[in-house]
Write a structure and sequence with these properties.
By secondary structure, this protein is α+β, with helices and mostly antiparallel strands. It contains 14 helices and 12 strands. The strands form 3 sheets. A 6-stranded antiparallel β-sheet has the order 10-9-8-7-11-12, with helices on one face. A 4-stranded antiparallel β-sheet has the order 1-2-6-3, with no helix packed on it. Strands 4-5 form a two-stranded antiparallel ribbon. The relative contact order is 0.12. The chain binds fe (ii) ion.
Length: 389
């Protein structure tokens, strides 16, 4: 059975199966007299040609099982390549559209930061918003974004894209078939933090607590963003309002206008949820990334106070209890990675089998839609690359 550590997945294996796949001895193996037979940290590969000897020695000493750690061995790159082999292809974000959006956001921020705002500056961003809306509009499911932030500076840009994808999915579910609404939600998401282009980056990336003055400055970004967007030729009221009000709270107490409930436009309420969810799951200089499951719990806990309950429920329905990227143990003790959620079915996503019950990695792509399988998820083991200890 697999359990997880920060560095891999632990298996208790019969000694005969020790060498079926690469692994590392997870705990010292000692005989009855306390003599060390296999030290913790031994790579099984080091034993090489002596494997039969080791197996028979362990058996003779009455040691029938050994705790082994196997590396997760599934980087996002490998996962992407595996997903690429799936036919029909699993829906992921169109990488070109995603990269173009990130570049468009980056360009707009840089131009604004150096005082070169102009009337047509945001047109490329709106075009990207339209393209993404076309993608999400086909079927509003949460797309498995594999874009990684390469540098701290990129964070805001990739964050804006992630918020747009998530907000777009939520908008598509909450207002099915309403393409203009979807376009507004996505464009507003791409632009929601535009005002940060004029906030001191040292404050935005400050690892410690902000002073009262610094906090005051950060809180100006929705208003600055709204003005910048208007100056750059954005005329749609829905977009301008969403930029201004994405930090308002359902029960009040948000900024800049301390609005309440339904007075906050739906697009702004959607962005509020997507913004916080993506921020919680991102790794920053001053904090670690929260696994999506925990981020989801945080949103649900604040539902009705900070967030519109209908929007947070929609996020739960779309992500499921095991969001994409979660490592799970199935009822037959295989270990799998969740690759897509199933709207409306919280506990039966589609999974990619990763290790069999003996900890041997699957070489081929085995995709299982748990809605059509007798298998079920026994428990979550953490998130890909970020397992719970
Ligand atoms: Fe913001």
């Amino acid at each position: 059975m697999g359990t997880t550590t920060g560095k891999g997945i632990l298996f208790t294996l019969p000694v005969e199966e020790l060498f079926d796949a690469p692994g590392i001895v997870a705990e010292d193996v000692v005989d009855n007299a306390g003599k060390l037979i296999l030290p913790q940290g031994t790579h099984l590969a080091w034993i090489g040609a002596h494997r039969e000897h080791v197996i028979s020695r362990l058996r003779n000493l009455g040691i029938l099982h050994v705790r082994i750690r196997r590396e997760e061995g599934l980087s996002t790159e490998r996962l992407r390549s595996l997903l690429g082999k799936i036919s029909p292809p699993l829906r992921t974000v169109n990488r070109q559209a995603a990269s173009e959006a990130v570049t468009a956001i980056e360009t707009a921020y840089h131009e604004i930061a150096v005082g070169r705002n102009r009337e047509d500056l945001l047109l490329p961003l709106l075009r990207c918003g339209k393209a993404l809306a076309g993608e999400i509009g086909k079927s509003p499911s949460i797309l498995f974004s594999l874009l990684k932030v390469k540098a701290t500076d990129e964070y805001t840009f990739v964050h804006s894209l992630n918020v747009a994808l998530l907000a777009g999915s939520l908008a598509g579910i909450l207002r099915p078939g309403d393409l203009p609404f979807l376009k507004h939600a996505i464009s507003a998401s791409l632009l929601h933090d535009l005002g940060k282009a004029l906030i001191n980056p040292a404050i935005l990336n400050k690892p410690g607590k902000l002073t009262a003055e610094e906090y005051h400055e950060v809180r100006q970004h929705p208003l600055i963003g709204e003005n910048l967007a208007r100056d750059s030729g954005i005329a749609e009221l829905q977009i301008l309002q969403a930029i201004r009000w994405h930090h308002e709270r359902w029960m009040g107490g948000g900024y800049p206008d301390n609005l309440l409930g339904g007075a906050i436009p739906l697009v702004a309420r959607i962005i509020a949820v997507a913004d916080v969810f993506d921020a919680l799951t991102a790794e920053r200089a001053y904090k670690g990334a929260l696994p999506p499951r925990e981020a989801l719990s945080t949103i649900i806990e604040s539902s009705g106070a900070h967030f519109d309950p209908a929007v947070s429920r929609c996020l739960l329905r779309s992500l499921g209890l095991f969001p994409p990227g979660t490592l799970v143990e199935l009822s037959d003790e295989t270990i799998a990675v969740v690759v897509s959620s199933t709207e409306g079915d919280l506990i039966r996503p589609t999974v990619l089998l990763h290790f069999d019950a003996q900890g041997v990695p699957f070489n081929d792509v085995h995709l299982v839609d748990l809605r059509r399988s007798s298998l079920h998820i026994r428990r979550g083991l953490g998130h890909l690359g970020k397992q719970a200890v």
